[in-house]
Predict the 3D structure of the following.
Amino acid sequence: MMNMVTHTSVDLDRARTVLAALREGWLEALGDAPSASWAPLHAAMASAEHANGWFAPSEVRHAAETWCTALEDEAIESWLEGLTVPEGEAQPVTVGLVLAGNIPFVGVHDLLCAVVSCHRVRVKPSRDDARLTEALIQGWAAACPGIGEQIEIVERLDGFDAVIATGSRNSGRYFQHYFSKVPHIIRGQRTSVAVLDGSETHEQMQALSQDIFRYFGLGCRNVTQVFVPRDFDLDRLFAAFVEWTHLGDHHRYHNNYTYHKALWLMEAVDLLENGFVLLKEDPQWVSPVGALHYQRYDDLADVEAKLDAGADEIQCRVGTGGLPFGRAQHPGLTDYADGVNTMAFLLGLGR
């Protein structure tokens, strides 16, 4: 068995510096008077909705604020202390990143992991998130010497030794084929679930609404399936969702809502709705934008069996047996997508 030591391939001082600089950049971009280095990110965040109608100012701000929290000094130190890599020297390789664009800054964790692991990075942003990603990298490079030489933004990914690619279920199959000859992490579509036991307070239900509606439900950490006890009153959910009524005024969200409402009514599907979300009893893990699937249960053991069977479809779980309500959209540095340790993968390259 390979002997393991800690931090042999990670420059800890540099990692602390570049991650702290990234946090400072977001803080500046969230303010009114960013420095010259971070002014482009400030501008990109302010105009993101013009390039992508799903990137409402409130959602872009939430994403940036979440990263500011994830990159606090104590969180960075805890993450770095937990890194373990194979013994011996490693040679930097070129890592290609194919980023998703479903929510603002969704590819940042892969990006910072690649930077901290000291590899060369070639980034292909999603066109849905390209402007934010490019502005972030531009600011980071201006604030930290060496970042600009380490990261290259490309329109077409080539010249790579390893790949981390994120996309839909269909693109995931394509990625598996296209990148099969190099070390890779391929991510397809996942979603998240909530499990209620009926004892939840109104405040906890309001927190659950954050897990459901943040980013218009487009993220893999958004809850799209809720398990409730057989006698659970679904009006409790509607009462807790009131603060999200404004979603009905968002044209893209509203179009999805009205389309599925009309479709399901024509199919005589039983629905409950409140003007901006459709509650549909359905075992499918993923619900469309503007809808929320639910399942009733008699025995929690039955829920656990379903969750075990669908483990490859689920990103995270909130409520009974999972994260606290309201925490799904606040991932930290140790929350690796799909449960695959990105840093372990990267630190094992070049050996």
The two ends are 16 Å apart (CA to CA).
